Amino acid sequence: MNVGLFIPCYIDQLYPQVGIATLQLLERLGLSVTYPTNQTCCGQPMANSGFEHLTQGTSYNFVTNFSEFDYIVCPSGSCTLHIKDHLHDEGHPDKAISIRKKTFELTEFLTDVIGIKKLAAHFPHKVGLHQSCHGLRGLGLAQMSELMAPPFSKPESLLNMVTGLELIELERKDECCGFGGTFCVFEEAVSVKMGQDRIADHSNHGAEYITGVDMSCLMHLEGILRRQKSKVKVIHIAEILNSVNK
Amino acid sequence: MASVKKNQPSMVEFPTLNFAGDTSIDLKAQFIKTLTGIGGSVIEVNEIKEVGDYIKSTFPKPARIVNTLTDLNFEHAYPAGRFEILNQKSDPHDFSNVTVAIMQGEFGVAENGAIWLTEVNMGDQALPYICEHLVLIINKHSIVPTLHEAYEKIGASAYNLGTFLAGPSKTADIEQSLVLGAHGSKSLLVFLINY
Amino acid sequence: MNPQNNTHSELAEKFNRDVERVNWHDKTLWFVREKRDKAAHQIAEWEQLREAASQIKNNVLSNLHDYLIEFEKNAVRHGVHIHWASTAQKHNEIVHSIIKKHGANHIVKSKSMLTEECGLNEYLHQQGVNVVDTDLGERIVQLANEPPSHIVLPCIHWKKEEIGELFHQHLGTPKGNADPQFLTAAARVHLREHFLTSRVALTGVNFAVAETGEIIVCTNEGNADLGVQLADVHIACMGIEKIIPKRKHLSVFLRLLARSATGQPITTYSSHFQKPREGQEMHIVLVDNGRSERLASDDFRNALKCIRCGACFNTCPVYRRSGGHSYHTAVAGPIGSILAPGFDMAKNADLPFASTLCGSCTNVCPVKIDIHDQLYKWRQVLVQNGHTTASKKTGMNVMSQMLSHPTVYRFSGAVGRWVMRTLPLMINNKFNPWYKQREMPKASTQSFRSWYLNQRKHEQ
Fold it and tell me: Which of B12, B89, B175 sits opposite C160 (nearest CB)?
């Protein structure tokens, strides 16, 4: 199988280490991974702000870069969800539909497609798992607390394969962090308050690191943590899963 | 109305309801547990006379006690004028000073501690809501598991007013502190009788 | 006290200035969400109930016309007067005319969000009719001259000390007494007087059964029942979407309603009014006010399934931290944010953006309204209709151009990062809303793409 690596725009620009960890992790699992070098963005920032009609350019560019792969893997729940739900290209409607079906967020790709049962990863720290909303409720990466249904969690099952890692409990397992795209600036007061409350929950339970499948959530939390001069750090789940003994 | 007809989407059938409560559990126990948990009191008795005794001891000096059951007779217990059997129509406002109202309920519902009663049981429709303390008497064998069975039992019966009554009136509007006794009765005492 | 010109974000910002209060508001409502979870966990068939309720409501919307006709026929058969009001104004006029006909100038009213939507209290007040809201929470906000901030817990934003002070001023309770038991008892006495002296009682309608013509009103306090039983005239006001097909369907809705709203298995009173009491007149006013128009929309029709339980409010992290008044509309919270733009797009254009689209609301909704999907769709509609700022439009256009062209994207990215690294003050200042309470992300020296190309070059 050939895998196309879809790296969200803000990871490409601001958190390349997440992309590097994702690529290395997939290659160590023996996969043939290609990063299409002309990719840009999935279009979500415009669409979520009410400007879906301005996403033809980004959608076209996405289809052009990714239509030839068996699978498309992305270290972001929200970008993956956007592609799955909203990718449309008037010029190539079938290609867009086929891409929607083969795009996966990293953890769901590892558990559902590859079916990995063990990882050679070591991360001896107390870690809090932030359950990003789009991944959780949109992609079904784990069971949400709202539903009366059996629990499961793809990201957690992977973290449980990492030696030395202690996953902490939280008071509100799946409350939103408050990033929400442009919400983070247009509703700044509520956005920050939500982030501060998430951080307090993690800190109160002893987290040294906060992780998750979406760097956007973590970027927002990191901004607050650094302003608070907190010792707590954020780290994308790809980086944890890729932390082999050096 | 025309625009409703014009605008409604294409027809979708409603589902057949396949819900059934669990009749194998101890319905009486669940009913008692649930109703007690929401502020009601429940007493099991074997005959109607015991009801009279309990009421006498629970409400030794009621200002006014009104009863709708003809087989419950303990007027000797209270000084003349304080105990009435309701059998005529009157102005609902006349009941504003009733301390205790006693009436029968049709049946109970285990999952929520509710009792179904209609105007036939109430005597006057205002009585269950206006009294200070409400006493309901139901057959202990009449308890159904859930509202699904309850509505089966109610069927297509024609009442003026039917109500599921579950506990004393209450409110948590002040900082989510639960207070029993809002505008309706301040307490609910239920007798499960062996009819 | 609904500031017409302020947006949700401005009002929410003010709400957040009192950190202790926001924490208290947030915790109190989260507690209600937890109670809902606990109650739902006890019903093994909870998710099937939600599905059944959703499907029943889908059926109602697809056959609304015939159900309304059937309801009217059955209600009229029982001696109930039916009135149809196409607009909020007509509703108010009809209600007033009934009150006037009976020569009353004082009525008691139990909770009805529909009457809030129509602005009935204000209208009647202007016509010289005194309306006393009898639900304790509603009475509290009425005395304070405020609208309710939550459809089920109207004064959730009031602390008991503040209520104590309010009662001291209006009811003469002792100063400083903030005991909920004492205050409730005082309200009972005060409102009893009104119950006993009002000849007209107005209620809302939780459900209206087409098959039987009966209406169901659910309360914990008993205020609706007390008002109706002591009155000569019962006026019940409902939106046309409150219809359900058969009496037995009530089992599904009554099992879901109170558990979703407050975590109780059922409200204390669930009263089924089929015929007026002897000597009493019963009127039902059915209101359209934009509902039939919404019915036509594939995207937004599902909002009409709402049974007004309030679960979406309690679960919404934004509502908990902004309070109902930040939504400046009768029904606030997530459901309010998809209803309000339908009533007035210009005034409520901010509401669908008062959300992170986390999706929690959709998943607690007992009738499975796709709330967060509708919030997204409203955003598109609002922007298409011009309800956005010029600067946002320009910004988005620029962003879309930049992100559609790989070389422009890469160049802008590199420049942006260079500025962040070498001229931080250009970005880290008070004009940058992100920077107000957060540090900016560190700008890396190379993008992932550069690293990748470098790696591939070295591998060759």
Answer: B175
Beta carbons within 8 Å of A215's beta carbon, 6+ residues apart = A8, A10, A11, A15, A18, A75, A76, A236
* Cβ neighbours of residue C103 closer than 8 Å, sequence gap 6 or more: none
Q: List chain C pLDDT tens, one digit each, 460 residues.
A: 344 568 999 999 999 999 999 999 999 999 999 999 999 999 999 999 999 999 999 999 999 999 999 999 999 999 999 999 999 999 999 999 999 999 999 999 999 999 999 999 999 999 999 999 999 999 999 999 999 999 999 999 999 999 999 999 999 999 999 999 999 999 999 999 999 999 999 999 999 999 999 999 999 999 999 999 999 999 999 999 999 999 999 999 999 999 999 999 999 999 999 999 989 999 999 999 999 999 999 999 999 999 999 999 999 999 999 999 999 999 999 999 999 999 999 999 999 999 999 999 999 999 999 999 999 999 999 999 999 989 889 989 999 898 999 999 999 999 999 889 888 888 888 888 899 999 999 988 999 999 999 988 887 6
Residue C254: its chain B contacts at CB < 8 A? 147, 164
Query: CA B148 to CA B142: how far, in whole Å?
Result: 14
Q: Is A185 on the interface with C (CB under 8 A)?
A: yes
Q: How far apart are CA A217 and CA C153, in angstroms?
A: 32
Cα A46 to Cα A113, B76, C394, distances in angstroms: 30, 81, 12
SS3 sequence of C65-112: HHHHHHHHHHHHHCCCEEEEECCHHHHHHHHHHHHHHCCCCEEEECCC
- Say whether residue A179 is in contact with chain C using an 8 A CB cutoff: yes
Of the candidates A12, A54, A144, the beta carbon closest to that of C447 is on: A12
Touching chains, C (3+ CB pairs < 8 A): A, B
Q: How far is B75 from chain C (nearest CA, A)?
A: 28
CB–CB of C160/C168 below 8 Å?
A: no
> What is the phi-psi region of residue C152: left when phi exceeds 0, alpha when psi lies from -120 to 50, beta otherwise?
alpha
What per-residue string of b and e applies to B23-60 under the rule 16 or more CB within 10 Å gives b? eeeebbebbbebbeebbbbbbebeebeebbeebeeebe
Residue/partner pairs of C165-173 with CB below 8 Å, 24 or more apart? C166/C140, C167/C143, C170/C143
Q: How far is CA A34 from CA A38, A76, A80, A102, C138, in A?
A: 12, 17, 17, 15, 62
d(CA C314, CA C258): 13
Which amino acid is residue B188, in one-letter code? L
**Which structural domains are found in chain C, ordered by start?**
20-158+199-388 (3.40.50.10420), 401-459 (no CATH)
Distance, in Å, from the CA atom of C334 to the CA atom of C359, rounded to the nearest integer, reads: 10
Q: Is the pTM of this model over 0.80?
A: yes
CA dist., res. C277 & res. C232, Å (int): 9
Rounded distance between C-alpha atoms, residue C64 and residue C293, angstroms: 13
Which residues are B52's β-sheet partners?
A: none
Distance linking the first and last C-alpha atoms of chain C: 70
Residue matched to tokens 């009279």: B52
CA distance B56 to chain C (A): 25
Rounded-to-integer distance, Cα C379 and Cα C68, Å: 32
Contacts of C349 (CB under 8 A, 6+ apart): C341, C382, C387, C388
| Spatial CA neighbour of A74 closest among A19, A148, A154, A25 | A19
C residues 43-102 closer than 8 Å to A (CB): 43-44, 46-47
Residues in chain A closer than 8 A to C334 (CB atoms): none
Report the distance separating Cα B99 and Cα B66, nearest Å.
8
H or E element that contains B151: helix B147-154
Q: How far is C93 from C95, CA to CA, in rounded Å? A: 5
Q: C184, B179: Cβ pair inside 8 Å?
A: yes
**Minimal Cα–Cα distance from A167 to chain C, Å?**
23
